[in-house]
Design a protein that fits this description.
alpha/beta; TIM Barrel; 8-stranded parallel sheet; 12 helices; 41% helix; 16% strand
Amino acid sequence: MDMPKNRFKAALRAGQPQIGIWNSIPGMLVPELLAVTGFDWVLVDTEHTPIELSEVQAALQAIAGFPDVSAVVRPYANDTVQIKRALDMGAQTLLLPCIESRAEAEAAVRAVRYGPRGVRGVAGLTRASRYGHVENYIPRASEEICLLLQVETKAGLEALDAIAGVEGVDGVFIGPADLSASLGYPGDLNHPEVARAIEGAIRRLRALGVPSGILYLDDASNRRAIEWGTTFTAVGVDVGLLVAGARALRARYA
């Protein structure tokens, strides 16, 4: 069996814009529902949600039913064990939160690679290798793994060029919510200082030839970020859509 291709990674390398959505509700139903609606990528988030790492494989299986949709997994930390488990479950694209230095970026790269170039633990009979059926999975695995690093603090911004320059980093995601807090404007994602910092980061990444991504919850901010140069842009969260829909429905019967 051939190595499963990572369409998301290929699209980033080709500079093709990818529009995504966040999955924060546990279970198989919601990620499958999001995938069927035609987004380019669905992110399964274990950092700020009740989704446990043990539930990620089921979400990946649900999304896999739609070959034109890519799955991205966010472990709750830049942690070697969490990364290993997500990869073994078949995640090919990871978004690691709160990267603040070149050293942390280098550690992330090592975590997604087998030795001697990395420290990923070796297990042969995993979903990632299709339970041992993918030929030469271990020596070739890194070819299709896409590593995205999240920069979301003042320290991370100051180290942005160094982080983005680490070989093996495929993209950098700017986290506007945490960044607004780190810059002294908690909750004010569109404060002029925050907006300038984000625009500057996106333009710096573009100049470096490194794909950038972001998540806002309003169309105006998302479109502005795309104009600045984001390549992978998440435009909504499942819980937010549910809340907005429920409110709108209730308001019609007020």
